[in-house]
Write a structure and sequence with these properties.
With 110 residues, this protein is α+β, with helices and mostly antiparallel strands. The chain has one domain. The chain contains three helices and five strands; from the N terminus they run βαββαββα. A five-stranded antiparallel sheet has the order 1-3-2-4-5. A hairpin with a 4-residue loop joins strand 4 and strand 5. The protein is globular and about 40 Å long.
Length: 110
């Protein structure tokens, strides 16, 4: 189940987002608005939710949250942008830091 998060997720929301992949959550993060959509089968599913709610494609980046490790992985097909990011992995350090900060703020549970 995909959730659009503007504030920290509840335990129930995290469990629902884990239903698809069980051990990790695919997310799309709007680095300007500091919100995310998570829980889709694909990062593009989450990206679509953000776009539908006013995000701009250039501000949206894909990542995975692994709750058991409290870790963020930065690879996603939606991250491929020919001139600025020719890889699935987010290359720009500032973008990575913002993605991580948003993911940790909205998905990190004690």
């Amino acid at each position: 189940m995909i959730h659009l998060l503007r504030q920290a997720a509840t335990g129930q929301q995290i469990n629902e987002m884990l239903e698809v992949h069980e051990t990790y959550i695919k997310v799309a993060v709007d680095i300007e608005r500091k919100i995310l959509a998570g829980g889709g089968e694909f990062h593009a599913d989450c990206e679509s939710v953000l776009i539908e709610h006013g995000s701009r494609k250039q501000d949206v980046w894909g990542a995975d949250w692994i709750p058991s490790e409290r870790a963020v992985r930065y690879g996603a097909l939606i991250n491929i942008r020919p001139k600025i990011n020719p890889s699935m992995e987010i290359q720009d350090r500032a973008v990575r830091q913002t993605v991580e900060a948003v993911v940790r703020a909205l998905l990190h549970t004690p």
